[in-house]
Write a structure and sequence with these properties.
7 helices; single chain
Length: 156
């Protein structure tokens, strides 16, 4: 048990774990790009537009200011991005009832179908990769990935 902790600390200290997680995240972006390209209606979405749909979907709607923060954009840039996906019918916007200066962004039915289709394709690609892996993931690995995803949740 102590040996595992020391080995884990060494993997973090020498950058190996961070490097492998970065490789995993890069592959995730690639899988997402493929899934977007293979999904009718989503093939021309940029990654930033896709992220906006995912954030809106995960929160059952989001204010543009929060969306900007989550995407690392200025509020004007986020507003322009929202207008582009709204023109495509993926989101709708409305003034917030509690603050008329704020605008809420909500996924439309078409946006929900698109998000679900892309996520489904992405999960199938991940599943295929897991089937090819040696022995599959251990319960410990699944637990660590779950914990890491929670820690990185502010970005997703």
């Amino acid at each position: 048990m102590v040996g595992d902790a020391v080995a884990g600390a060494n993997a973090i200290g020498d950058g190996t774990l961070v490097f492998e997680i970065e490789r995993l995240l890069s592959a995730g972006i690639g899988i997402t790009a493929i899934a977007l390209d293979q999904t009718p209606d989503a093939e021309e979405l940029t990654l930033a537009q896709w992220r906006a749909l995912v954030v809106a979907a995960g929160n059952e709607g989001v204010r543009i200011g929060e969306l900007a923060t989550r995407l690392g954009l200025s509020v004007p840039a986020a507003s322009r991005l929202v207008r582009r996906v709204e023109r495509r019918g993926f989101v709708s916007t409305a003034r917030a009832e509690d603050d008329r200066r704020a605008t809420n962004v909500t996924l439309t039915a078409a946006g929900r179908r698109t998000v679900d289709a892309v996520v489904g394709r992405r999960r199938r690609l991940i599943g295929l990769a897991l089937e090819r892996s040696q022995g599959g993931p251990s319960e410990r690995a699944v637990g660590l990935l779950h914990e890491l995803a929670g820690q990185l949740g502010d970005y997703g």
